[in-house]
Each structure stands twice: as C-alpha cells, then as structure tokens.
C-alpha cells in the first residue's frame, strides 16, 4: 500500500498494520476533539443548576425576599472567553517552552481536578457569595487549561493527513450536543436535584479521564508514530471549532437561558435544555457541516459581510421572547415554537458563517501570508468573543 509522505514529496511503502491502526487514530482524535470542549459546554448547559443555587429566596419579617442577582450566565460566558484571548496572545511562549506532553496531559489532569471539585461542591452547602467566587475561579482555570489543550491538539492533529483534522473537529462539534443530552438524561432520571446535578458533573469527569487515556494510547499506535515523528512540529492556537460570532455570545446563553415556557408541568423542566442548548448545538453543527458541501456567498461577494452583519437582528428578536425577569422591553414572542424557530435560524447561521469566515480569510491574501491571516483571524475572533460576552451584561439589563 502506498502513502504520500508530504515532507519529502515521495511515496513510501506502508504495511497493512500501519494503515489499520489509522482507524484507531481517527477514533482517538474524535474522542480528543470531544474532550476539548466538554468543559465549556458542561458549565454552560448547567446554568440552571448554578442559578438555582445562587438566586434563592429567603424569609425576612414574614415576607419573601430575593437575594442579589449574580448574573451567572453573563460572568460564565465572559470568564470562559477571556482565557481564550489570553492564551492566543501567549501562544508562541507556551508552545516554545513547554513540551507537548506536558501541555496536553497536564491540561487534562487539571481539567479533571476542577470537574471533580465541581461535582464535590454539589454535596457541600456553601454561602452564595463564596459559591459564586469558587465557581467563577473554577470556570476561569478550567477554560484556561482548555484553551492550552485545544491549541496543542490542533497542532498535533495538523501533522496527520487532513481528514484527521475533520474527524477532530467533528468530535468538537458534538461536545455541546453530548452535554445537552447529559442534562436531559439527568432531568429524566427523576432523581432529586442534588443527585441529578452530581450525576451530571460525574459524566465529564469520566469523559475527561477517557480523553487522557486516549492521548496516552496515541504514541503506541504505529500509524501515529509514523506521522508524529516524521515531521517537524509547529503549533498554532486554532479555535475555529469553538468560535461563535460575537453577536451569538451577546445573547446566548445569558439571555436565551432565561426564556420561560408558556406551558406548565414536566415540560417546564425540559424547555431550556431542549429548545436552548440541544437545539443550538445541533443546528450550529448542521450549519458548520453545510459549508463542506455548499459555500454561498463567495469570498469576494459584498453580500457575505452584509449577511454576517444582518445577524444582529437576532439580538432584539431573542430579547423580545418570553425572557423573565424583565423590566423594560415588551414580550412580543411568548409562544414556545416561535422561540424554537428563532433559535434554529440563529444557531444554523452562527455555525455556517463562522465556518465560512474561517475558511475564506486565508484565501483573501497571498499564499505566503495565509498563516499570518489565520493567526490574526483567530486573535480578532477571540477579541470579538470577549466583547460579545461583555455586551451580554447591558443587553440583559435592557430586557
């Protein structure tokens, strides 16, 4: 069997054993892709649990008083994106001075530790301010290590044939759906809220452990050794599978998670996990997948940036859904299915245009400048993400 060695532009003979281990390498990189985005998605999808612990009510002089608003979803979004911006800037320093194994295995170990801590805190009673501070610190550190992990794995998978990068990104694309289903199963278990939350957070602990073992298994496969040791290693922090347009993070999940159903009963418990998180992740993944077969408008079309800008319309549309509590804006779309329809177009366009943008950017410059363009695109998208997360605060206040 012949295989092209890109570093020498010559053909080398590869035995059947080497080729067969390539299937296992693909499975491993799918698991690694899934594992890189588990932290972000599990914390985001668990917003109802965190808000219930933080925004509780208490009795005072015979009346119910509500404690202060923590704006958990806004802070969670902001503190998840700032590490991405920070480690984009620290890219060259980290990858030049810290070994690949230390970056990947070390990041997974720390992510596992913080997930275990989050699971343990489910069983520990804690004053709200302290719980909020500990949770925010956990989100900061877990996403910092997640940013290092993701950038390192993108560099690693870049040494293999291109199809393995697609497999890796497919794993990343399904991480949000995986987290949404985990939340739905936790609710469907009919366990008390504490036990359901504990089971929910144990799931990413197991997932991170499997991811760590998968990475440790990689060097033992002959196919992986053939590629990983035959080429010079060059790392660049790439985040295209995680990136959402700024517009998206200004309202998701900070505003969308507060939309209430007009129906009661058990559906009330499933409404946000299904219509907010499951719909968003499945449709976002669909939008990204469509760009493989269909790219419109073209990279030179003036219509393309116009359509991207037009996504701003989703901000007021989602703000005028049945978001509670609200103070200023009216509710124009109280129906559940109108909200679901808006979420479908919102998420499909998010995945489609971010994937198209990352594809087109390097093609708009000379080939020698393509790598620089990709790096700049990554930085400004990370900056946009952080600004979008910050914008969620005044937008939520305006509702």
From TrEMBL:
Family of this protein: Belongs to the SLC29A/ENT transporter (TC 2.A.57) family.
GO molecular function terms listed in the Swiss-Prot or TrEMBL record: nucleoside transmembrane transporter activity
Location of the protein in the cell: Membrane
Transmembrane segments: 18-43, 75-98, 104-122, 134-160, 166-186, 198-218, 270-291, 303-325, 337-361, 373-393
GO biological process annotation, one example: hypoxanthine transport
Sorted UniProt keywords: Membrane, Transmembrane, Transmembrane helix, Transport
The keyword NAD belongs to this UniProt entry's keyword annotation: no
Record's protein name: Solute carrier family 29 member 2
Annotated GO CC locations: basolateral plasma membrane
One Pfam family per UniProt: Nucleoside_tran
Protein's membrane topology: Multi-pass membrane protein
Entries under InterPro entries matching the protein: Eqnu_transpt (IPR002259), MFS_trans_sf (IPR036259)
Native organism: Cyprinus carpio (Common carp)
């Amino acid at each position: 069997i012949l295989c092209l060695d890109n570093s020498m532009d010559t053909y080398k003979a590869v035995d059947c054993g080497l080729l067969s281990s390539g299937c296992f390498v693909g499975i491993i990189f799918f698991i690694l892709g899934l594992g890189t985005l588990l932290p972000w998605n599990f914390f985001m999808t668990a917003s109802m649990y965190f808000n219930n612990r933080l925004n509780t009510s208490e009795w005072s002089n015979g009346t119910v008083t509500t404690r202060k608003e923590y704006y958990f979803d806004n802070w969670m979004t902001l503190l998840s994106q700032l590490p991405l911006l920070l480690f984009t800037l620290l890219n060259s320093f980290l990858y030049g001075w810290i070994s690949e194994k230390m970056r990947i295995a070390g990041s997974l170990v720390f992510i596992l530790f913080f997930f275990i801590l989050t699971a343990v805190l489910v069983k520990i009673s804690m004053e709200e301010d302290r719980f909020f501070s500990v949770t925010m610190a956990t989100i900061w550190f877990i996403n910092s290590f997640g940013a290092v992990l993701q950038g390192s794995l993108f560099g690693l998978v870049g040494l293999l044939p291109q199809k393995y990068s697609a497999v890796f990104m497919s794993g990343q694309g399904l991480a949000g759906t995986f987290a949404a289903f985990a939340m739905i199963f936790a609710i469907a278990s009919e366990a008390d809220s504490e036990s359901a939350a504990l089971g929910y957070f144990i799931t990413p602990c197991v997932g991170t452990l499997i991811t760590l073992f998968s990475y440790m298994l990689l060097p033992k496969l002959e196919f992986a050794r053939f590629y990983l040791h035959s080429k010079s290693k060059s790392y660049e922090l790439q985040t295209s599978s995680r990136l959402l347009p700024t517009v998206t993070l200004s309202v998701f999940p900070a505003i969308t998670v507060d939309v209430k159903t007009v129906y009661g009963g058990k559906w009330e418990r499933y409404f946000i996990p299904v219509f907010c998180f499951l719909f968003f992740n499945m449709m976002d993944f669909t939008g990204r997948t469509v760009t493989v077969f269909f790219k419109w408008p073209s990279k030179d079309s003036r219509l393309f940036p116009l359509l991207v800008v037009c996504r701003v319309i989703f901000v007021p549309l989602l703000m005028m859904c049945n978001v509670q509590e609200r103070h200023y804006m009216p509710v124009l779309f109280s129906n559940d299915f109108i909200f679901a329809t808006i979420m479908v177009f919102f998420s499909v366009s998010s995945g489609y245009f971010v994937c198209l943008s990352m594809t087109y950017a390097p093609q708009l410059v000379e080939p020698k400048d393509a790598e620089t363009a990709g790096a700049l695109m990554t930085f400004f998208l990370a900056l946009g993400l952080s600004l979008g997360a910050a914008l969620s605060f005044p937008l939520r206040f305006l509702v």
